[in-house]
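Example (one chain per record):
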Amino acid sequence: AGRGPMSWRRLREGDLVGVVAPAGPATPAAVASVEPLFARFGMRTRLYPSCQTRHPRHDFLAGDDAVRAADLQAAFADPEVHAVCCLRGGHGSLRLLDRIDPTSMRANAHKPFVGYSDITALHALRAHEGLVGLHAPMPASDLRLEGAEGDARALFEMLTQTVARGAVLAPVLQEATWHVPGHASGRLVGGNLSLVAALLGTRWAWPVEGAVLFLEEVGEAPYRIDRLLTQLSLAGVLDAAGGFVLGSFTEAEAPTSVLQEHLTGRGKPVLAGWPAGHGRPNRPLPLGLRVTLDAAAGTLTLEEDLLA
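Predicted structure:
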């Protein structure tokens, strides 16, 4: 398929991947593991300064806001860089939204952008620019852990192969899954539930009207999931969405009953158990792309080219 206005150029062996740290810092050992990881899949890497710095006052940030924002923009503007990958999540992406001039992102719409968790904020910014992002594991967190080989292989396969309109994502769903049957077609939006909620009331809130809303979370007790979903409900988000895909909700008691209470009974399809988020497996998902959800079949069908 020919490349559409939003589709990416697929990566080829020897391509250079720019690695940036728009959120939290990584340990020196984690940073040192990044280059060998990409090399295993035939890619070269360029680590931007934010990957090796820390904020002078806030140890939860990888460098100050100006450095992190500048790195993100520089990676997209660099003609040698073919894709931009976030080092890890944590916290800090939200602080960059009003510092980022999306011009270089728009001018380099053919470059894949990879990250999840706190990076949800940057995916939302890109969605407002009509750009796609890959909700996928990151090199200094998930991909360096034991047992992550399957996730890494799935990520690099998606980045290096043509992924055209009509492609069907049909992964093995997580155990104890559930669904509300039905179909919904719209842009796939969302990501980490806390970040989706944190963006409400800002001009970067996810455009949810008619969209397929994906949500995942980590380390939040059911009562906190209930609070976040209630916030989305009161803000009109759950009424506006056309359907729902739920990823992993890990490191806390399973919030199944809370999710079911908020999402069933709306006359909209719901598919739980999608293998994406802070659990494992964590398979790549193209945020911002038009998809069709078939909740009973457990599939997402791409309605636009992703990589050409």
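Caption: Confidence is low (pLDDT under 50) at residues 1-5.
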